[in-house]
Write a structure and sequence with these properties.
InterPro entries: ATPase_AAA_core, Hint_dom_sf, MT-severing_AAA_ATPase, P-loop_NTPase. The chain contains 16 helices and 33 strands. It is α+β, with helices and mostly antiparallel strands. It folds into 7 domains: 102 residues, Endonuclease - Pi-scei, Chain A, domain 1 (Beta Complex); 69 residues, no CATH class; 66 residues, no CATH class; 34 residues, no CATH class; 99 residues, Yope Regulator, Chain: A, CATH 3.30.1460; 78 residues, no CATH class; 111 residues, 3-Layer(aba) Sandwich (Rossmann fold), CATH 3.40.50.
Length: 679
């Protein structure tokens, strides 16, 4: 999951001191940052902690002795060591290269290393007669001496190279193996040097991680393994500093170093240092000052002047069924008016303590104030009116209850309506979200929607702000909907099914299809050095890599894939199977059925086909894949064409060139198949 770190400005922070055995670490966090804790009073655990029994605690509420919950990747129990990986690791640790060599070598000495020879049975070797004797294995890949590339009782590992130990910790983090902090000490061996050390947590290992039999035996003979966790030592104020936090989409948690799990809110920077703060799960219940948008996200404003409703609810006002805010004392009502940036002036010399006061918004946005009438009240003249039946005083103040609304950036309306433009910076109109889907709409419909959902807001200002902050429509297949920089990856090709999160995916049906179709490539691929270099052994491997590249790097050029053969060889099923992975529409067309003996009918059929595909794309916002079988009927050789066929081909090529859709962002893909490539 891509989760970039963002700055959240300077804030007051606390220093959280944690301890795990003899290791100490300090984390700075804001007072309301969320942590997940597990209570246990002992020094260590012989059984793994049941983190299902956990509580959510804010930084300021953390207690000494509480265990911070950790989470690690699953699947270590299914790891089967790779022979190539073992070779790479041994050469990286004890091998050599240099002196103009294009390979690496590995020397194994004494009886201790003889057991490792079983991993190099296919490599040439020579006997070493010096010293204690041994074996030198040669012609190993040159890059085995380089660090492994990472994408995306205890076991102790030492090295004189700190970056090597850091890489071990990085790989351990990916595998879910906890490692200690790196320590350093001076080694007094053949040549004094600094040695760097990290310790792998035994409870996270399995016997498959040990290559030598005596090491596996020692590991398996330990019946009880202690579990050590990070415990809170102290929480103290640490001043004010810039705060950074990870923004994780669609979840409320992320992991820090050493697998410590922590939660956070999702915040979007706003104008003048304000923030639009979202809770993660949809429909999350929060304080009454929080709101929910039309798709269920709970949000609030931070560091932003509140409106009348927010100020009234925060200061003890109760909202009745008519939208009035009722206060039991006038003092709280006066504080509410001060909070929205004004002042409530009342006649002097009267008692206001304990007097019920009502604030409400006039239809033109001004503030209406009602006070209970007390006997002996003085000064309620001029703009004050007496409601005899209700025994109240009422007055309309020239205080704008929308004062906080006037400068708002209206970013919350991004989930309802958006002004969009093309990558070429030409206006592309308006989009409105209705029933969970985005549809193109004229500006007049946007006005109607805004007046329906936000009658108190100025729709012209909302739309003007949206135009000044337009979304750019982009086409980035198989990427997230919002890549950043107000780019909107709307309607691009997406996977219909979520890819399996496994290193060894199983797809027997796909393998059968690709083996059958790619068998004619087997001989050529086995003779191609490029294929050998990249472990492509046959036609199935080549087609698998071709399709994977199309999905993973859709903008990178690929070799043309031209498939032909007799009926039933698999041309159509390859196109249909590939299209089935994409969340879009697959339209299968027989080109011969589009031809006609009537003048001009074939050209009309071609035009209708593309118009239908364009309309489907614009209406549903999903890509359309046109598969045209027997395409030679439309695109035959020019030497054998007559007048009608020429016009039909020209119409088809015109549609393919996008002449009738210039300037529009149309996701339309065309695949053709033929039994007669020579025609």
């Amino acid at each position: 999951v891509e989760a970039p770190f963002k700055s959240y400005g300077k804030q007051d922070v606390f220093a959280i001191t944690l301890k795990q055995r003899n290791q100490i670490k300090v984390i700075h966090a804001t007072k309301d940052h969320r942590w997940f804790v597990y209570r246990y009073s002992g020094e260590w655990l012989k059984k793994k902690a049941n983190f299902g029994r956990r509580a959510e605690v804010r930084t300021q509420d953390l207690l000494s002795g509480q265990i911070l919950i950790q989470t690690k990747p699953r699947g270590k129990e299914n790891i089967q060591p790779s022979i190539v990986g073992i070779q790479h690791g041994l050469v990286w640790g004890d091998g050599t290269h240099g002196g103009g060599r294009i390979t690496s070598t590995l020397s194994l000495f004494g009886n201790k290393d003889k057991e490792l020879l079983r991993f190099f049975v296919e490599h040439p070797r020579r006997e070493i007669r010096q010293s204690v004797g041994g074996v030198e294995i040669t012609n190993l890949p040159y890059h085995f001496k380089s660090l492994v590339c990472v994408s995306k009782s205890s076991c102790i590992i030492r090295s004189s190279n700190r970056s090597s130990i850091e890489r071990v910790r990085e790989v351990g983090h990916i595998l879910g193996i906890e490692t200690s902090q790196i320590t350093e000490a001076v080694s007094s061996g053949y040549k004094p040097s600094i040695m760097y050390t990290t310790i792998l947590k035994a409870a996270d290992l399995t016997e498959e991680f040990f290559l030598l039999a005596k090491h596996r035996s020692r590991f398996n003979n330990v019946s009880n393994r202690y579990h050590f966790y990070w415990r809170v030592v102290s929480v103290k104020p640490a001043g004010r500093e810039e705060v950074f936090c990870c923004t994780v989409p669609e979840t409320g948690c992320f992991c820090l170093e050493d697998f410590i799990i922590t939660g956070n809110c999702f915040a979007i920077p706003g104008p003048k240092g304000s923030w639009l703060v979202y809770r993660f799960a949809k429909g999350t219940a929060e304080h009454k000052l929080w709101s929910q948008d039309d798709v269920g996200w709970t949000w609030c404003r931070y560091n932003w002047q509140p409106n009348l409703r927010q100020a009234a609810l925060a200061l003890g006002g109760i909202e009745d069924e008519r939208g009035n805010y009722v206060f039991t004392t006038t003092e709280d009502a006066q504080k509410t008016v001060e909070t929205i940036g004004s002042k409530l002036l009342l006649p002097e010399g009267n008692k206001y303590e304990g007097r019920q006061t009502i604030l409400r918004r006039h239809k033109d946005g001004r503030l209406v104030v009602e006070l209970d009438k007390y006997e002996g009240d003085e000064g309620f003249v001029g703009d004050w009116l007496e409601l005899e039946k209700k025994k109240r005083w009422v007055r309309i103040y020239n205080i704008n209850t929308n004062s906080a609304e006037e400068e708002r950036d209206y970013s919350e309306f991004d989930s309802l309506t958006r002004s969009v433009r093309t990558p070429a910076n030409t206006d592309a109109g308006w989009m409105i979200r209705t029933s969970g889907a985005w549809v193109r709409s004229p500006a007049s419909n946007v006005v109607r929607v805004l007046r329906a959902v936000a009658p108190s807001c100025d729709d012209s200002k909302i739309m003007g702000t949206a135009i000044l902050n337009q979304w750019t429509l982009v086409n980035m297949p198989f990427h997230e909907e919002h890549p950043g920089g107000r780019q909107w990856n709307y309607g691009s090709a997406q996977f219909k099914y979520k890819p399996a999160d496994t290193k060894e995916p199983v797809h027997p049906h796909w393998d059968k299809i690709l083996s059958n179709i790619g068998q004619d490539l087997d001989h050529t691929i086995k003779q191609t050095e490029w294929c050998k270099k990249w472990n492509i052994h046959d036609g199935k491997d080549y087609l698998t890599a071709w399709i994977a590249c199309m999905f993973r790097e859709p903008f990178e050029p690929l070799p043309y894939l031209f498939i032909y053969g007799v009926q039933g060889c698999g041309k159509t099923i390859l196109a249909a199977a590939t299209a089935s992975e994409i969340d879009g529409y697959f339209v299968n067309v027989d080109a011969a059925s589009m031809m006609s003996k009537w003048l001009g009918e074939a050209e009309k059929n071609v035009s209708k086909l593309f118009k239908m595909a364009h309309a489907l794309n614009e209406k549903e916002g999903k890509p359309v894949i046109l598969f045209i079988d027997e395409v030679d009927s439309l695109l035959g050789s020019r030497n054998s064409e007559i007048g009608g066929e020429i016009r039909t081909k020209n119409q088809f090529l015109s549609e393919m060139d996008g002449v009738n859709s210039k300037g529009k962002d149309v996701k339309l893909y065309v695949i053709g198949a033929t039994n007669k490539p020579w025609s």
